[in-house]
Design a protein that fits this description.
This protein is mostly beta strands and 265 residues long. Helix content is 9%, strand content 43%. The protein contains 2 helices and 17 strands. A hairpin with a 3-residue loop joins strand 15 and strand 16. The chain is elongated, with a radius of gyration of 22 Å. It starts with a strand and ends in an 11-residue tail after the last helix. The C terminus is likely disordered.
Length: 265
C-alpha cells in the first residue's frame, strides 16, 4: 500500500490509502474496495470520508493529485464521523453500484485512451477536501463487446474514445456524460463511410446505439452529421445475428447526408 500523508492544523498527521478491488468494474456492477486510514502520532477525529468518480482523471502516480483535477459524475458514499486513536488503523469498506451509463475505459483489456478516477476526500481535524487519487478501470459489457466484435468482423476497428460533458438529446440519462467510440474501416474501398462514430447509451435492459459518420473534432451533438438510433438487449447476446444487424446499420448510415438533421438538438 502507498499511504498519502495529510497534515491538519498544528501538523496533526493522518495517513490515507484507497484500494479499489473490483478492477476492472462493469457498468451497472459494483465498485468495491476500502479506504485505509492511520493516525500514526496522536488521536484524530475524522468527520467524513466521501468519494467522487471523475472523468478526465490525470495519468499520475497515486496520491499525486491535488483534488482539483477531473470532472465529477458520481458520488459514492463512504463514512460519517469516527475517531482514530493514536497508532490505530481503520479500514472503511467501499461498495457502490455503478450507473449503467458509466463510461468505459477498456474493451477486452485494450485501453480506449480515456481515464476515470476515484477521488477520496477526507475532512478531519483541520483537514478538508484533501484527496487520495486512483485511476479506475471500467470494462465493456458482453453486449458492448458483441457489437464491437461484429463491427470488427465487417472491417471497422475501434481506434479510441472521447468523453464529453453532455447528454444525448432526447434520451433519459443518469450520468451527464456522452462517450463516443471512433470506428475506422481497415479495409477501405467499399461504398461506405471510412470512419464511424458510435455511442452506447446503456441501461438495465440493453443499449440505445447511436451511429453516424464520424466528426471527432466536433464536440456538440447538433454540429455532427445525423445519427441513426438502433436498440439491442443484453439477453440478445448469443441469440441475435449481430453481424447482419451491423451490416444493415452501416448501410443505412452510408445513405445519410453529412449535414445535421434539422429536428435534432
Amino acid at each position: 500500500m502507498v499511504f498519502k500523508r495529510l497534515l491538519g492544523k498544528g501538523g496533526v498527521p493522518l495517513e490515507i490509502d484507497t484500494l479499489v478491488e473490483s478492477e476492472p468494474a462493469l457498468p451497472g456492477g459494483l465498485l468495491t474496495g476500502e479506504v485505509v486510514l492511520r493516525a500514526p502520532e496522536r488521536r484524530v477525529e475524522v468527520k467524513s470520508i466521501s468519494l467522487r468518480l471523475v472523468t478526465d482523471a490525470p495519468v499520475a502516480h497515486k496520491g499525486d493529485g491535488d483534488g482539483e483535477s477531473g470532472d465529477s459524475f458520481d458520488y459514492p458514499s463512504v463514512s460519517g464521523y469516527f475517531a482514530l486513536e493514536k497508532g490505530e488503523e481503520r479500514r472503511v469498506r467501499i461498495r457502490h453500484r455503478l450507473k449503467w451509463e458509466t463510461p468505459l475505459t477498456e474493451v477486452k483489456g485494450e485501453k480506449l485512451g480515456v481515464h476515470l478516477g476515484l477521488h477520496t476526500e477526507v475532512e478531519a481535524e483541520g483537514i478538508k477536501a484533501r484527496t487520495d487519487d486512483d485511476l479506475v478501470h471500467i470494462s465493456a459489457l458482453p453486449l458492448h463487446e458483441t457489437v464491437l466484435d461484429s463491427f470488427a468482423a465487417e472491417g471497422y476497428v475501434c481506434k479510441g474514445s472521447r468523453i464529453v460533458t453532455a447528454n444525448i438529446p432526447r434520451t433519459e440519462y443518469h450520468v451527464y456524460r456522452r462517450q463516443s467510440l471512433l470506428l475506422v474501416d481497415r479495409s477501405p474501398g467499399h461504398e461506405r463511410p471510412r470512419e464511424l462514430e458510435l455511442n452506447f447509451h446503456t441501461n438495465a435492459v440493453g443499449c440505445e446505439i447511436f451511429l453516424r459518420k464520424a466528426a471527432v473534432h466536433e464536440e456538440y451533438w447538433k454540429s455532427k452529421p445525423p445519427a441513426l438510433r438502433f436498440v439491442a438487449a443484453h439477453h440478445e447476446v448469443g441469440r441475435v445475428d449481430f453481424g447482419a444487424e451491423i451490416r444493415r446499420w452501416i448501410g443505412e448510415v452510408a445513405l445519410l447526408g453529412d449535414s445535421h438533421a434539422a429536428d435534432e438538438d
